[in-house]
Amino acid sequence: MTATVSGEALAARLAFGPPDRELLRQILSTQQPDEIETIRRAAEQTLLENHGDAVRLRGLIEFSNRCSSDCRYCGIRRSNRQLDRYTLTLGEIVEAASWCAQRGYGSIVLQAGERRDAKFTRLVSAAVRAIKAATESPTLPRGVGITLCVGEQSADTYAEWFAAGAHRYLLRMETSSPELFAALHPPSQTWSSRLQCLKSLKTLGYRVGTGVMIGLPGQSLDDLVDDLIFFRDIGADMIGMGPYIAHEHAVLPGGAAIPDGATRLQLALRMIAAARLLLPRINIAATTALQTLAPDGREQGLRFGANVIMPQATPNRVRRLYTLYDGKPCLDDSAKQYAACLETRISSVGRRIISNDWGDPAKH
Length: 364
Ligand code: SF4
Description:
Shape: globular
Structural class: alpha/beta
Order of helices and strands: HHHEHEHEHEHHEEHEHEHHEHHE
CATH superfamily: Aldolase class I
Radius of gyration: 19 Å
CATH topology: TIM Barrel
Oligomer: single chain
Bound molecules: iron/sulfur cluster
Number of strands: 10
């Protein structure tokens, strides 16, 4: 690839036909500033042609940090005993969701650690139904759009929540490499089980989001190229991915070094651009992890092709207890302060917030 390759040519080579592995590799690896700018412009142009300048919001409600899983990189994993655990009440969850709806956020994400006990699955069903009822209005006749992000579950549980009214599900693969997945998780958590869950969700009719961590110990550029092709093959409707950021209580096996923060940020931005060029019509989130590595990380994510932001709507009193990784920004801002700061940030890159809209792309 050279900088003389036009953005249109770059987009056309990736959006049509079989994936061009070599081109994807070059997008992720080039160090030439003019090539990086060509890539960024091509991704931004592809975004504007397919989605316009609107940024879609999903109010993020982290309703419980209890988790029965033990992902080795995660700060709230089961075996981290140095953490107070919480679960919001049904009333608190509905209150947070209603606040999002009043603010014009047309969609919310209900996120928590992974649990499969009946008390938890019933709470999720009840929350989905109650939120739908509480947020119906002339501007949102079907209530807010609800994305669930509560991990691996049985197909029956997924079906129950879909029937209750959730229509999107975010389940990050974390890596498409079975070997890397095995290094990140205990033997009881398997790559094939995660993949089966993604397939069940698609079959049931959910809009499915997935994603990976970028800059993991032992991860190669080819692994990242595989991740991009995985997104295409699984039929992802949304992607949320960000740089790997270690948690102080992570227990990943030592040995392999990770790239420095600036390198991981650059890689994450290139992954967003490559995903946008490969899959023009899907939603791509500018994740909070980007902002952890640079104060304007999420704005950069928007400029490289992202079109979704998940503003914090978790009650302030528990927000510090939901730390999957270290350095999470805006922990002390109130949801109102956070929303105001977000509007300024989004307009600073020439984009605008779309309000009272579920923000789903057309089926592809
Ligand atoms: S990543 Fe999710 S499932 Fe894994 S330990 Fe953390 S909260 Fe639990």
